[in-house]
Design goal:
Radius of gyration: 16 Å
Helix content: 10-25%
Shape: globular
Number of strands: 12
Order of helices and strands: HEEEEEEEEEEEE
Structural class: mainly beta
Strand content: 35-45%
């Protein structure tokens, strides 16, 4: 029965995604799995943290609200504060997906924010996402960005096939 609900939800999601263009926003429902969430288009074009974006291929992404973290002494680049995001990637396509293909660019108050690698704290960056993601599965990536000490407005621009390959989607909020 659970499989039937999941399959029905996935079919509905893919049908709506196919009609919606390159990507659409989805407002998460904590009681549903990623593939079961209903679609609600974003009015502004930018998605808030916790919103799911689905591309026509079936690939979807949810970006968590950031958590602030003091980087270790070995972090690259050096920074006083980092904004750490959990990016959940669900492969709703029929082919395996390499999460390392994901293009993620960040800005803090309109200025580029450098991805921070801090292996001491388990933040190894997007380049460490080497495992293939089979169809119907999801994975979580932890990405960190160097940000000023005071709160900033952040935007994460994500493209699943790499820069210039798929329509970009923007997630934004306070960090």
């Amino acid at each position: 029965m659970k499989f039937a609900k999941s399959a029905a939800g996935l079919c509905l999601m893919l049908a709506v995604a196919g009609c919606a263009g390159p990507s659409v926003a989805v407002t998460p429902d904590e009681n549903l799995t990623v593939e079961q969430r209903a679609e609600t288009p974003s009015a502004s074009g930018a998605a808030g943290y916790g919103t799911q974006r689905v591309w026509a291929s079936g690939l979807s992404v949810v970006v968590s609200a950031p958590r602030s973290l003091a980087p270790s002494e070995t972090a690259i680049p050096k920074a006083r504060r980092t904004a750490v995001f959990t990016i959940t990637v669900y492969n709703g396509s029929k082919a395996p997906y390499l999460p390392s293909q994901l293009s993620v660019r960040a800005t803090a108050d309109g200025e580029p924010a450098a991805e921070l690698v801090d292996s001491v704290q388990g933040l190894n960056g997007l380049a460490a996402a080497v495992a293939e993601l089979p169809p119907g599965r999801d994975t979580q990536l932890q990405l960190a960005f160097a940000v000023p000490e005071s709160p900033v407005r952040m935007q994460l621009t994500i493209q699943p096939g790499g820069q210039g390959q798929d329509a970009p989607t923007v997630f934004e909020g306070q960090a």
